[in-house]
TrEMBL record:
SUPFAM superfamilies tied to this protein: TPR-like
Pfam families reported for this sequence: TPR_19
Transmembrane segments: 319-337
PROSITE patterns associated with the record: PROKAR_LIPOPROTEIN, TPR
Official protein name in the record: Tetratricopeptide repeat protein
Signal sequence, renumbered to the chain: 1-20
TPR repeats: 103-136
Native organism: Terrimonas rubra
InterPro entries found in the cross-reference section: TPR-like_helical_dom_sf, TPR_rpt
Keyword line: Membrane, Signal, TPR repeat, Transmembrane, Transmembrane helix
Upper lineage: Bacteria, Pseudomonadati, Bacteroidota, Chitinophagia, Chitinophagales
Length: 341
């Protein structure tokens, strides 16, 4: 038993990695069967600060100028993960002066400006990074641009979101399946995976974005994934201005008809600290098992011996009970024969 547990602990990450390449079959709201080769993205509730801390600790910051440009840029990114934006900007501004054509530097500078609320500068540098590499982030950076433009529009008009779609994908309730809309849905998922850890609930722009993603998924790919996207829209504050609850109720009927268990945003929103605690437990148990193989093996052998002893006792008891019953039957037979005579 212990050997089995140890094997499961050691192999469960590999198992989840392996199934990531399976093809999934889904259905859109028009009843058309669709498919995708990757599952719906899961989102973290915060950046990976533990990893960022470890990365910075592994470098000598007093000699930061001796590292190559990409390593210095990565250090800036990890400072940003920790909320140390001033330090990140100091590095990235200097690197930009020295390397204005380096995509990583330009894009990271734009993102850091956004995290500090300087959306005009952020948009400027994200557009510059797109000019350097239009296919960066799997060609999904158009989503980043649209979100920054929406932030600037909202600064001018606080009611802008009530009348506008952030991403302006053109999807409607009756949109037919098209490669363009499918790709837009996948681009949005990609960008949200990076953005959600920095965006706690509620947040009006992401409520709008998740609502539009739901419309895309419902018409193009999957009512199940659309339901999750709408659920996230509600968490981000999309109360009734987009009719999200009504859309979910419509999909709920279809999901039940297709015998699909109703999904929830909670299953796709991972708590970084909880995951760390689980990983720590797995790592500790794995270490104990690997460092005490003889002890674990001894416990296992003792367990097996106890099981064998139980089986021996069970067989002996069965023989005794069976033999006793046989003797009673024979005795009864002879008593019956004597009375018959």
């Amino acid at each position: 038993m212990l050997r089995t547990i140890a094997l499961l602990i050691l192999t469960w990450p590999t198992f989840f990695t392996a199934i990531a390449c399976y093809n999934e079959t889904h259905i859109n709201k028009n009843g058309k069967v669709t498919g995708r080769s990757e599952p719906f993205f899961g989102f973290y509730d915060s950046p990976d600060t533990a990893r960022a801390t470890a990365f910075i600790a592994n470098h000598d910051l007093s000699k930061i100028h001796t590292y190559d440009v990409d390593t210095q840029s990565d250090l800036a990114v990890n400072f940003a993960y920790l909320g140390r934006y001033k330090e990140a900007l100091t590095i990235l501004r200097r690197l930009y002066k020295e390397n204005p054509g380096n995509y990583n530097v330009v894009a990271n500078l734009g993102t850091t400006y956004e995290l500090t609320g300087k959306n005009d500068s952020a948009l400027l540098f994200i557009k510059k990074s797109l000019a350097i590499d239009p296919e960066s982030h799997a060609g999904s950076e158009w989503v980043h641009v649209k979100i920054l433009e929406a932030k600037l529009n909202m600064a001018k008009d606080p009611n802008w979101l009530l009348k506008n779609s952030v991403l302006q994908t053109g999807v409607t309730a009756g949109s037919a399946i098209s490669d363009d809309l499918v790709n837009k849905a996948l681009d949005i998922e990609y960008q949200l995976k990076e953005r959600v850890p920095f965006t706690p609930f509620p947040e009006a722009i992401l409520a709008n974005v998740f609502n539009e993603l739901g419309d895309l998924l419902a018409t193009q790919l999957s009512v199940e994934h659309a339901y999750i996207a709408y659920d996230f829209a509600l968490q981000y504050g999309a109360v009734e201005q987009y009719g999200v609850q009504q859309k979910m109720d419509e999909l709920k009927r279809m999901l039940r008809k297709e015998k699909i268990i109703l999904p929830s945003w909670r299953a796709y929103y991972h708590n970084r600290q909880s995951e760390k605690n689980i990983n720590d437990v797995v790592e500790t148990v794995t270490k104990v098992v690997s460092e005490n193989k003889d002890i674990v093996s001894g416990f296992y052998d003792q367990y097996k011996e106890r099981q064998r002893e139980k089986e021996r006792i069970k067989r002996r008891n069965n023989l005794l009970i069976g033999g006793g019953a046989f003797l009673v039957a024979i005795t009864g037979f002879f008593v019956w024969m004597r009375r018959k005579k």
